[in-house]
Amino acid sequence: MSKFWIVCLMLCSFGAVAAGSSKEAKVTELMNLMDMDALIDNMYVQMEPMLKNVSKQLDIQPSEQPLFDQYYNDVLTIMKTDFSWEKMQPGFMDIYLREFSEQEIDDLLAFYSTETGQAVLKKMPEVMQASVQLSQTLMQSAMPKIQARVKQLSDELAASRLAQ
């Protein structure tokens, strides 16, 4: 009788492992369907203008351009190495496995297999870039107000501490 239960437990545990690997395989399929490695590569293409904008912010002079270019290339190399798809993929796998049920992954696979799903994937980098630009614009207009409030807080704290 106890052998029966041991066999049942073993079969159940094998089923759990198989279910886990099935979900993992689906997440891998989803990442391939979403062309995540290309999305990561596209991220660098979008970051290049932002990094080059640092040149304007630092007021790089023509004589300083070679030095800036060297640092720029070094930073780009570091980012492409340290944020490569090979390094990011295991983390994305963990996130997707943790955050999405197998049914949700199945639904995502179904959606991204459609023309609309593929259109979303193709347009998402531009949507994200426009969203970042919008956030930056809004932040620029809000920054003076935020800085004024921080200064008020700092002044009030200083006055309060002097009074103690």
From TrEMBL:
InterPro entries (UniProt xref): DUF2059
Keywords recorded for this protein, A-Z: Signal
Residues of the DUF2059 domain: 86-144
Stretch forming the signal peptide: 1-18
Taxonomic superkingdom: Bacteria
Keyword Signal appears in the UniProt entry: yes
Name this polypeptide is given: DUF2059 domain-containing protein
